[in-house]
Amino acid sequence: xxxxxxxxxxxxxxxxxxxxxxxxxxxxxxxxxxxxxxxxxxxxxxxxxxxxxxxxxxxxxxxxxxxxxxxxxxxxxxxxxxxxxxxxxxxxxxxxxxxxxxxxxxxxxxxxxxxxxxxxxxxxxxxxxxxxxxxxxxxxxxxxxxxxxxxxxxxxxxxxxxxxxxxx
Length: 168
Known about the structure:
Layout: H1 6-29, H2 40-67, H3 78-110, H4 118-145
Helix pairs in contact: 1-3, 2-3, 2-4, 3-4
């Protein structure tokens, strides 16, 4: 499996940002009330980022213990590690989309902060966008921790290479 590419995440964020900015422009231009960003959005995104970092730090320490061949090292379950990678791979584009969407909405709101209530909306949207960026960073960190070394010269020293199972 190839690692998540940063240009893809950037493209997702830009597309979502243009959508967030355009949605704000269309809603405000139509004379409707601008949508509020739920205050819980920052909390939920922050919780997700904390869980991703916690799993990454735990996995990294367990891998270090195995690499150093400590007696008390607990082996990693390969299926659980694969699930961590799937969680990381799913979280990074979602975080990029959320960061872009909230970022675009924040940029739209920043254009006229003098109107009543817009600075509160902008600060809530900015907080949600920043915590969404934390989700992206945490997901990329978890993905990095769970990667398997290849056969090339960039292998991590001390870790065994892939097993060659030959039939016959």
